[in-house]
Amino acid sequence: MSQRKPNRPSSLLRTVKKYSVSAFVICSFSAYAVHERLLASEATAANQAPAIAVTRQVAAAAPVTAKPMRIAAPKNAPAQMLPPAQPAATTSGSYKDGEYTGALADAYYGNVQVKAVIHGGQIADVSFLSFPNHRRTSVRINNYAMPYLTSEAIQVQSANVNVISGATLTSEAFAQSLQSALESAKS
């Protein structure tokens, strides 16, 4: 009887594959760990920023004016000019001056509560008293969404704000809390 010799090339190939897969897994995990560490340091830096960075005073800001837009027309027709966009209609003096705290609104990962500052009968500022910030992802999302929500609420002078993509739950809870604050400001 003849003894079978192990097939060296296939044995070597299997060993190389095992080491390659192991190296890939280790490199992937290392890259993920570095990525998470960087996100954690960004979130920590964002949490250490002063609270003033989250809110902003718009009373001193200059009004935004729209420029006319040129509409594409057929080649032989002259181009038309649109009139400047009109700002959203607001009722002057529809709220009583003061600071009004909204009710807590559930945003699934935490509660949202806002304080509306009314000056001259209009929303002058909206600040977040609480928001979901127990997870790094929540901190990152909310640090992105909160300035937009605040700015839009001041611009439209109501709680009827657009939902921020990626921060849907925070946007909806913001609108609920702001609406309750504005209802207090009306009475």
Commentary on this structure:
This protein has helices at residues 8-48, 136-156, 168-186, and strands at residues 70-71, 80-81, 98-101, 105-106, 111-119, 122-130. By secondary structure, the chain is of the alpha+beta class. It folds into 2 domains: 10-50; 92-187, Sufe protein. Chain: A, CATH 3.90.1010. 43% of the residues lie in helices and 15% in strands.
Topology at a glance:
Layout: H1 8-48, E1 70-71, E2 80-81, E3 98-101, E4 105-106, E5 111-119, E6 122-130, H2 136-156, H3 168-186
Helix pairs in contact: 1-2
Tell me the CATH architecture of the largest domain.
Answer: Alpha-Beta Complex
Radius of gyration in whole Å, from Cα? 28 Å
Strand content: 5-15%
CATH fold topology of the largest domain: Sufe protein. Chain: A
Low-confidence stretches: 47-91
